[in-house]
């Protein structure tokens, strides 16, 4: 892809859990990390939205700071899609929503859920039909045989996030002025972020 945009969308209302962080850290460290992640998820809207835009580049160049993207996820997604033609927009959104449906079906069938996974979306502006969406960051996971309660919670979190991403793209397709739809949210988030620099706080 010579003329392409990449969007890394972190999936879920909750980036991690205390049980998951304990696998790599001592109990106190795990508790602190889980608490910090919970706060950041809430601050940047992941808790309500079900996802956050973690990275966004056009032809290899970053569009905005990580914290700005996270807090204004819907705005930047709409901004990216605005540059497509009407036909290109329909093609790209069909590719993305189909990929999401396939991922949800596969995860349900295999009874596995991932923590801190992302949906990587590559949009080809020269040939929208070559655009792709795939699941990445699959290092941390739980299956129904590992821990049924933890699996059910993680699966619900992940499915909600994926479906919310799909809903956002569909809403943009059906709205003639998606940028205006999310502009107020962007302004409010940028105002809140000026007093709090959390750009590198997601780890």
TrEMBL record:
Give the UniProt keywords, A-Z: Kinase, Transferase
Looking at the record's lineage, which domain of life comes first?
A: Bacteria
Which GO biological-process labels does this protein carry? inositol phosphate biosynthetic process
Which protein, by its recorded name, is this? Inositol polyphosphate kinase
| Keyword match Transmembrane helix | no
- Claim: Lyase is one of the keywords in the record: no
Q: Which GO terms describe its molecular function?
A: kinase activity
């Amino acid at each position: 892809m010579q003329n392409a945009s990449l969007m890394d969308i972190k999936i879920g209302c909750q980036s991690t859990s205390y049980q998951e962080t304990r696998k790599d850290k001592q109990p106190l460290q795990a508790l602190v990390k889980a608490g910090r992640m919970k706060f950041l998820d809430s601050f940047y809207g992941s808790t309500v939205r079900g996802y956050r835009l973690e990275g966004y580049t056009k032809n290899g160049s970053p569009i905005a700071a990580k914290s700005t993207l996270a807090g204004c996820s819907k705005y930047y997604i709409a901004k990216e899609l605005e540059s497509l033609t009407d036909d290109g927009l329909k093609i790209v959104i069909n590719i993305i929503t189909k990929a999401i449906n396939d991922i949800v079906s596969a995860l349900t069938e295999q009874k596995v859920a991932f923590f801190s996974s992302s949906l990587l979306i590559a949009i080809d502006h020269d040939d929208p039909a070559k655009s792709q969406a795939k699941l990445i960051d699959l290092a941390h996971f739980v299956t129904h045989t590992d821990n049924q309660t933890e699996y059910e919670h993680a699966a619900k979190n992940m499915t909600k996030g994926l479906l919310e991403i799909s809903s956002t793209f569909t809403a943009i397709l059906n709205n003639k002025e998606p940028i205006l739809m999310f502009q107020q949210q962007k302004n409010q988030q940028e105002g809140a972020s000026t007093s709090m620099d959390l750009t590198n706080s997601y780890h």
